[in-house]
């Protein structure tokens, strides 16, 4: 899907396809360097928003890695965080002793990642770190240590590149701000 296919629903583009590509390449290079002497790297993608980041970031990493997925409850069809985290799909991997890198689309309140970090650490992982494509300013208020951040974005509801509103717009190649008329704002 392209911008011209839904331009009435988008107020502005905040991160272009080109910017995402360039930034993920930089992040992948750093990750490859940081983990090159480790004996494991497991990327844990948070479904469903992180699918695009996982696909593109993992291909920029030049050292061996494994992938696994978790699904946790999120906004549903609303644009406000609930703060309630529930595991909808757990990992298939026993992460005891492994270096885990959580791959996320966006950190908003930080509640989801704060919870996920503690949950994965409690399973005996050797390390648990976070890579996110986007971060909203609110995230700074929560004590979540994020190792790799792609872009800081304004405190608006954004869609595209995996991020949805009521399951729409995930296949946009860029990140944009959703027009309030779409969600009745
Ligand atoms: P948090 O717990 O508030 O940090 O955010 C939890 C999840 O909500 C994120 O991983 C996203 O999947 C989703 N989310 C947060 N902000 C947005 C947004 O602006 N657009 C789409 N999804 C979002
Ligand atoms: Mg997410």
Automatic annotation (TrEMBL):
<comment type="similarity">
    <text>Belongs to the purine/pyrimidine phosphoribosyltransferase family.</text>
</comment>
<dbReference type="GO" id="GO:0006178">
    <property type="term" value="P:guanine salvage"/>
</dbReference>
<dbReference type="InterPro" id="IPR000836">
    <property type="entry name" value="PRTase_dom"/>
</dbReference>
<keyword id="KW-0660">Purine salvage</keyword>
<keyword id="KW-0328">Glycosyltransferase</keyword>
<keyword id="KW-0547">Nucleotide-binding</keyword>
<keyword id="KW-0963">Cytoplasm</keyword>
<dbReference type="GO" id="GO:0005829">
    <property type="term" value="C:cytosol"/>
</dbReference>
<comment type="pathway">
    <text>Purine metabolism; IMP biosynthesis via salvage pathway; IMP from hypoxanthine: step 1/1.</text>
</comment>
<feature type="domain" description="Phosphoribosyltransferase">
    <location>
        <begin position="19"/>
        <end position="165"/>
    </location>
</feature>
<dbReference type="GO" id="GO:0000166">
    <property type="term" value="F:nucleotide binding"/>
</dbReference>
<dbReference type="GO" id="GO:0006166">
    <property type="term" value="P:purine ribonucleoside salvage"/>
</dbReference>
<dbReference type="GO" id="GO:0032264">
    <property type="term" value="P:IMP salvage"/>
</dbReference>
<dbReference type="InterPro" id="IPR029057">
    <property type="entry name" value="PRTase-like"/>
</dbReference>
<dbReference type="Pfam" id="PF00156">
    <property type="entry name" value="Pribosyltran"/>
</dbReference>
<dbReference type="GO" id="GO:0046100">
    <property type="term" value="P:hypoxanthine metabolic process"/>
</dbReference>
<dbReference type="GO" id="GO:0032263">
    <property type="term" value="P:GMP salvage"/>
</dbReference>
<dbReference type="InterPro" id="IPR005904">
    <property type="entry name" value="Hxn_phspho_trans"/>
</dbReference>
<keyword id="KW-0808">Transferase</keyword>
<comment type="pathway">
    <text>Purine metabolism; GMP biosynthesis via salvage pathway; GMP from guanine: step 1/1.</text>
</comment>
<dbReference type="InterPro" id="IPR050408">
    <property type="entry name" value="HGPRT"/>
</dbReference>
<dbReference type="GO" id="GO:0052657">
    <property type="term" value="F:guanine phosphoribosyltransferase activity"/>
</dbReference>
<keyword id="KW-0479">Metal-binding</keyword>
<dbReference type="GO" id="GO:0004422">
    <property type="term" value="F:hypoxanthine phosphoribosyltransferase activity"/>
</dbReference>
<protein>
    <recommendedName>
        <fullName>Hypoxanthine phosphoribosyltransferase</fullName>
        <ecNumber>2.4.2.8</ecNumber>
    </recommendedName>
</protein>
<dbReference type="GO" id="GO:0000287">
    <property type="term" value="F:magnesium ion binding"/>
</dbReference>
<keyword id="KW-0460">Magnesium</keyword>
């Amino acid at each position: 899907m392209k911008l011209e296919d839904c331009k009435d629903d988008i107020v502005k583009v905040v991160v272009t396809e080109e910017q995402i590509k360039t930034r993920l390449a930089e992040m992948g290079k750093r990750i490859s360097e940081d983990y090159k002497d480790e004996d494991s790297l497991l990327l844990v993608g948070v479904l469903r928003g992180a699918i695009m980041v996982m696909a593109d970031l993992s291909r920029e990493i030049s050292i061996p890695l494994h992938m696994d997925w978790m699904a946790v409850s999120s906004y549903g069809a609303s644009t406000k965080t609930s703060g309630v985290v529930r595991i909808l799909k757990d990992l298939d991997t026993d992460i005891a002793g492994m270096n885990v890198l959580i791959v996320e689309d966006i950190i908003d309140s930080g509640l989801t990642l704060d919870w996920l970090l503690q949950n994965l650490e409690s399973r005996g992982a050797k390390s648990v770190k976070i890579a996110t494509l986007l971060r909203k300013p609110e995230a700074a208020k929560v004590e979540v240590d994020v190792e790799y951040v792609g872009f800081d974005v304004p405190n608006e509801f954004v869609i595209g590149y995996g991020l949805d509103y009521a399951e729409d717009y995930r296949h946009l190649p860029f990140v944009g701000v959703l027009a309030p008329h779409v969600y009745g704002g």
